[in-house]
Amino acid sequence: MIKLQNVEKVYRTSAIETLALNNINLHVRKGEFVSIMGPSGCGKSTLLNIMGLLDAPSQGQVEIDGSRVERYTDKELASMRNQKLGFIFQSFHLINDLSVMDNVEIPLLYRSGSAAERRRLSQEALEKVGLSNRMKHFPKQLSGGQKQRVAIARAIVGKPEIILADEPTGNLDSAMGNEILSILQNLNQEGSTIVMVTHDDAMAKKTHRLVRLFDGTQVS
After folding, report:
1. Which residues of 143-153 are buried (b: 16+ CB within 10 A; e: fewer)?
2. In a 10 Å sphere around its CB, with 0-12 CB exposed, 13-18 middle and 19+ buried, how is residue 83 labelled?
3. Angle between the 144-156 and 115-128 helix axes, to the nearest 10 degrees?
4. How far is residue 165's CA from residue 87's CA, in Å, rounded to a whole number?
5. d(CA 124, CA 180)
């Protein structure tokens, strides 16, 4: 599903060169729920961004669902992100001036389809995360856990095969964090492939496989 071979990421300025990822080899198979752990600054988010085609490696190969992407144009990469990938972020990234329904619809605006179809799919996604009664609310009217559930609905509204979650429980208390993890587990059981960056060892142990990074290097 996601295959990284000899992936390296170097950030360069005029004064310094920083090796963020070093010789990463990782294969996430269809239907897996994989967690990525490591200390702050070890390259977790950089790795997730490369998996999500938001950044390109300095060296190495990235393969998504059997397709090598290094020669893809920006337009082709954007299309693959929209069709195959769903993103969940720690800080939600909701638009406060839009209703819950309108926030969830955003990925569908880049696809062909009627307004009625967008509404149907958005309502279906919100029902899946238990927020069908909040469709007309605005983000400022929601709790942190509800905001994250809206973000999950937005990530799954286009029915992506892969969900990439960057610290999805990081801004939540333990009870709400467990609720969010339960939603992700249900999505995985329904067939979604999930990669989750987390600092929470208890959360990571509930996934299929744990990948540990240290100073940009894969250590397990």
Report:
1. eebbbbbbbbb
2. middle
3. 130
4. 6
5. 18
217 pLDDT above the threshold of 90: yes
- Fold assignment, 2-218: Rossmann fold (3.40.50)
Cα separations (Å) of 21 from 4, 98, 138?
A: 12, 37, 39
How far apart CA 57 and CA 49 sit, in angstroms, is 10
Reduce the DSSP state of residue 145 to 3 states and report it.
helix
Q: At what angle do helices 174-189 and 144-156 cross, to 10 degrees?
A: 20
* Pairing mode of beta strands 193-197, 59-64: unpaired
- What band does 148 get if pLDDT is binned at 50, 70 and 90? very high
Q: What is the DSSP string of 81-129?
A: HHHHEEEEETT----TTS-HHHHHHGGGGGS---HHHHHHHHHHHHHHT
Distance between CA atoms of 184 and 169, rounded to whole angstroms?
11
pLDDT (tens digit, 9 = 90+) per residue, 168-191? 988 888 898 999 999 999 999 999
Question: Are 19 and 216 in contact, with CB atoms under 8 Å apart?
Answer: yes
Q: Which residues pair with 195 in a beta bridge?
A: 34, 164
Dihedral (C-alpha) 206, 188, 197, 123: value to the nearest 10 degrees? -130
